[in-house]
């Protein structure tokens, strides 16, 4: 409800204006429309106003306070309410229509009076529902506290919440946004300024670094981009830092990770500096001024290299820059410059095909064409075979096909020389020996593996062994009349067997010759001895006595004579008797060999025991008469060897 006297807002159930205490009864005289539309500030009813106060004869509208000073005066005027009613002025103040809303003083019964900020009428009209004002904000702005107003003992006076001051909040938010934006701009500008300062400082340090100084010399020239090494791409300083005939050299890695050397040299006035490079144009600097200038040149190390393939002796090379200064009168001198060294890598060739076996040349196939293959650890290298350059593929692989000339001899051996070269790398060389195609037969395998070559009582025995699969074997006897050899059978695995048959009149030993042949392989041959024993000692003696070939050793013949005429006596034609003592028994693959000493001559002989009744191992150091045949020389001992058919103690 709006007060008709002062235009203040009041609760709908209020009967008196909480500002001017005017009656709010319905019969009160209506206010002019202009005055009703004029919004003013609302106040809770002061405790000193009595609810029975009569309304004034004429409505009085106070003129709005336009300034802080007038607001204070208005507050003082209101304080006059403390005086008695009869002392108040009887004449009401003249009302004047306010031109616009102005701030009015606000006070609270429990708080100090404050001056209220102007209220934006448009904001109040735009808000459909006024927001509850925050207690802290109302306290700060001097607005009366709603909760305290509700605690008033007189329930007839209730406080209507004041609409929030949205415009002030918007202004506050706009102010905070502006401050934040300014702070961000200041930070960005600070970063840019700091970055520019660091960049400038870095550039200054490049020219003023300790590496570019000598003692107390002033700042020297630093050539930052010397890749082309063309004259005039760097500036020189005035102050000489070195002796004009001595240069300084510093090794370093630049920002591009390039290996460089920095040479600092003094260039006298009106002179020309020349640094000689082996593989590109020389570096030249002309000092056209009369004063000496100190020049610092950064040079990639590669320009000092030879630019050619290197040898084993050049694995480490020491370089000394060649620096010359030519004066205006034409005279010149060499500047003494320190040296620097570099180690160079060696290329590595790997031949993957053909792969020779040991030191023997690789045998070419039947068409006499050899495919050479290999790799090089650096694909940029150049590969040549016998001087012919061949391509190098991805991964450093290379291939070459070598042809032997037409009609080449089968005994021809060629050497392929593979060379890998690359400038500023140590050359690698490999050699591959090739043999022209030649038919080489396959070695023949032929071995007798029978455990016994002694015929049974029926004069028969079976011989077994191994040979090359597919080979053809034939066996013959030196006594073809009495000893017959059957056909030899060879299975797919190379195992062979055949049978030997002796007639009833044959006793003693027979030499068997076994031959093997296969296409594409070498021929093979071996010999072995088969035996057939006599029924007893007497039969043995009778057989040879009847032919007058029974000889006792050493009474009838000596061992030296036997060894000297082996082709005559080492056969089945002669029978012998020896008297000797057992020294040792040797067993080799089922064959028992008895080492004995002749009793009369003390000579050593070896006897193959062919008697089933003689057990020499149980009678070592015993003396025996042995009857048998002469074989020849035992192994590499030079001693006589016999077959012993019978052994009897003397």
Q: How many domain regions?
A: 5
* CATH architecture verdict of the largest domain: Sandwich
Judged by helices, strands and strand pairing, the structural class is alpha+beta
Helix coverage percent: 10-25%
Q: Number of helical runs? A: 9
CATH topology call of the largest domain: Immunoglobulin-like
Quote the distance from N terminus to C terminus: 168 Å
Name the overall outline.
elongated
Percentage of residues in DSSP E strands? 25-35%
Query: For this entry, what is the oligomeric state of its chains?
Result: single chain
Integer-rounded radius of gyration: 66 Å
Mean pLDDT: 77
Spatial ordering of strands, largest sheet = 13-19-18-15-16
Question: How is this structure best described in words?
Answer:
With 650 residues, the protein is an alpha+beta fold. It folds into five domains: 132 residues, no CATH class; 134 residues, Sandwich (Immunoglobulin-like); 87 residues, Immunoglobulin-like (Sandwich); 87 residues, Immunoglobulins (Immunoglobulin-like); 112 residues, OB fold (Dihydrolipoamide Acetyltransferase, E2P) (Beta Barrel). Helix content is 15%, strand content 32%. The protein has nine helices and 33 strands. A five-stranded mixed beta sheet has the order 13-19-18-15-16, with no helix packed on it. Strands 20, 21, 23, 24 and 25 form a five-stranded antiparallel beta sheet that branches. Strand 32 and strand 33 form a beta hairpin. The protein is elongated and about 180 Å long.
